[in-house]
Amino acid sequence: MNSAASTVVTVRFFGSLRETVGRDAVDLDVDDACIAGVRKRLASLLSADELQALSGQGVRVCVNQTIARGNVEVRAGDEVAFLPPVTGG
Amino acid sequence: MNSAASTVVTVRFFGSLRETVGRDAVDLDVDDACIAGVRKRLASLLSADELQALSGQGVRVCVNQTIARGNVEVRAGDEVAFLPPVTGG
Amino acid sequence: MHAEIRVETDDFNIAKEWAAMRARLGGRAGAVVAFAGIVRDHAGTEQVNGLFLEHYPGMTEASIGKILAKASDRWELTDTVVIHRIGELGPRDQIVLVLVAAAHRGDAFAACEFIMDYLKTDAVFWKKEHRPDGDSWIGATGRDRERRNGWEADAR
Amino acid sequence: MHAEIRVETDDFNIAKEWAAMRARLGGRAGAVVAFAGIVRDHAGTEQVNGLFLEHYPGMTEASIGKILAKASDRWELTDTVVIHRIGELGPRDQIVLVLVAAAHRGDAFAACEFIMDYLKTDAVFWKKEHRPDGDSWIGATGRDRERRNGWEADAR
How large a percentage of chain D has pLDDT more than 90? Predict the structure, then answer.
């Protein structure tokens, strides 16, 4: 999407993905202010296996705690989260 | 059924029937040792309305806490109970 | 299966019953469902000032025992408790407690609802409502019988 | 309708929650249904030594709020409480409590079971089982999704 100036977002990982990438959260300055831009920036931090886990079956991406459908835009200060399949109860 | 010697049974009334007949229980010496004999004996104690209530819709008769289907026999010491429709909970 | 039936005048203490059931469960049960019936201050549009509950000692407990046995035949249950109060009850008073534990929640929910539905139609209790215009003895409603008959139809 | 959602590390006290709900009810509700989930010591034939539950603060509560709103749209409810524990839990520990009050028992039973079924599939929690051969993250099962989808089909 739009190629903007410096955009710092917080990326959070939960459940199995938190364990796979070995961290809870990371602040990233993304060149391309969208989910694809976040993934591109993550590619420079994570191994190929770790990166692939973030696109695994049932994984959902949220922006500011709302499920993001497709490659939505992100803005400075946004919280991007990778959620593996959930279960409560 | 069989016309036997003196047979004393305890007759109990519950719920609305207890209120209608104005008593919890009565010991009766029945000539005819069966449910019909108990009813006949009750006729000498109760008014016609009270007696009719004992044959009202949904009223069940128990002998020794078991539902009596039809004119079953009773024996000395038996407990005969008249149960109006039940509801718990 | 532990099956406990109590008919009592005093109020029950859900905390005590819950704790006692948990102590019996060990690690086997994954689900506990509790139902409590509470006396409402109205029936339909009519005010209700209270209830009087009467039972037939022995026969009442046996009638509840049959209901629990039916439930236990139908579902995998670990533990069941029914406490039913008798005597005079006022609005907001607790009237009945049904506790069911099972390995799986589907069994616990179904059995608890089944037991309550049968308590309405098959348990040997008589209930009198105190209303502003006088007392009246009440029986199971058509809706109660429909709910019970729904289970019978399911079983076929 | 009172709708209360809590995600906590500490164990819940059913007695306290039950009493608090009863105090809020007044004479309106005739039925209270409680469900408690308890950690089992096995899953299928495998031994389970414990669970670790993780949540997403804010989003988890919102996901439960949506479930309660759905239940409240569908049934006449007076009061709902969901308490879900997080962190490390051992066998026999309580994990979740769902309390539902309604005027009528049918509504209370259905809503409580609906809420539990949706907690399995739609609530934002992650669950790791500790087993003798290692840890494994678990998701909603096919059976869980079937149960949830059953409610969706009902609504059509």
Answer: 86
Q: In angstroms, rounded to a whole number, what is the distance separating the alpha carbons of residues C106 and D140?
A: 15
Amino acid identity, position D119: L
- How far is the C-alpha of D36 from the C-alpha of D20, rounded, in Å? 17
Which residue from C27, C38, C40 is facing D91, i.e. has the nearest CB? C27
φ and ψ of A65, to 5 deg: 70, 15
Q: Determine the Cα angle at D53 with ends D48 and D55, to 5°.
A: 160
> How far is CA C58 from each of CA C3, C63, D89, D153, rounded to the nearest angstrom?
16, 9, 43, 45
Which helix (H) or strand (E) segment is D65 a member of? helix D59-74
CA distances from B75 to A47, B7, B38, C57 (A): 89, 6, 11, 21
D30 vs C: CB within 8 A: yes
Per-residue pLDDT reduced to its tens digit, C72-103: 999 999 999 999 999 999 999 999 999 999 99
ipTM rounded to 2 decimals: 0.91
Helix axes D105-121, D59-74, angle to 10 degrees: 150
Q: Give contacts of C141 with chain D, Cβ < 8 Å.
A: none
**Which residue in the set C62, C125, C128 is minimally distant from B86, CB to CB?**
C125
- Beta bridge mates, A58: none
Task: List chain C residues with CB under 8 Å of B12.
Answer: 56
User: HSE (CB half, 13 Å, CA atoms) of D70?
Assistant: 21
Which residues in chain C are contacts of B62 at CB distance < 8 A? 59
Please name the residue of chain C whose CA is at the shortest distance from the CA of residue B19. Answer: C137
Which residue is associated with the tokens 């961290």? A23
CA D50 – CA B4 distance, rounded (Å)? 71
Per-residue pLDDT reduced to its tens digit, C98-148: 999 999 999 999 999 999 999 999 999 999 999 999 999 998 999 999 999
- Establish how many alpha carbons lie within 13 A of residue D71's alpha carbon, considering only the half-sphere containing its beta carbon: 35
